[in-house]
Give the backbone structure.
Amino acid sequence: MRFTLFISALLAVAPAVARADVVEKKALTLDGARKIAAAAACAAKQRNVGVVIAVVDDGGHLLLLERLDNTQAASVEVGIGKARTAAIFRRPTKEFEEGIAKGRIASLVIPGATPLQGGIPIVHQGNVIGAIGVSGDTPATDEEIAKAGAAAPLGAKSVATLPVKYFERSHVAAFAKGMPLIETPGYKIHASRRTEPGLVEVHADETDVVYVLEGEATLVTGGKVINPRNISADEVRGTDVEGGASRRIKKGDVIVIPEGVPHWFKEVQGPLLYFVVKPIARNGGGK
């Protein structure tokens, strides 16, 4: 789902990029997720039950996961599914379960939905900024614990204001020499230009989603990096690759290169112009 949204954003931006008009968006922070999970855990302990507590952002992506002692392992994926469903459908998951009980069995095949009671949206200033999902006890108890978490007061550190950027097509092209468009702690978007081969690259915590706009190149992925050197704690460069898979890429192609996979634009027929979206792996922050 995340990759689909990124690719849709790339296609909308399309090849000429310039000034950005900014709209503010509220986002749930890790601090906020911890407060919500703590309130839910307190409610669970008061009831002497073991549950899984999942907190996600407004796109359904996991921010925090807690599995209380003696909670069944099967509840982990269910709790995440409940939270994700409440976030992306902007409603409590109880509505889906009640609909099924009344005969609306079509809800069972809704893509991306976990139609089980226990998922509650997190609402801030009238907008859904995330959701909590609880699983491990009865549906009614899961719901009560999730509501307790969703009701946790959120302070200034719990909600961040993020810019939503729109790039117009009709101004100065960003691909004249290549440039970063957006760089945030969660993702990056670069407008890239190549006229000759580069170095082999390995990103320890970034996935590269590449969308080719113009030109062609031979892209080598995988294999063993020759003459590797660390240019930072999370970045490796090399001069060649032993093994790996080669493919010719051209206009319109989309390539997803997971974190930790060597990749190299070995031969370039160009200029090669391409967008790169870099979702950054979120390590830690839960258990």
The chain has two domains: 2-19+172-279, 26-161. The CA atoms of residues 77 and 173 lie 44 Å apart. Residues 2-19+172-279 form a domain with the Jelly Rolls fold (CATH 2.60.120.370).
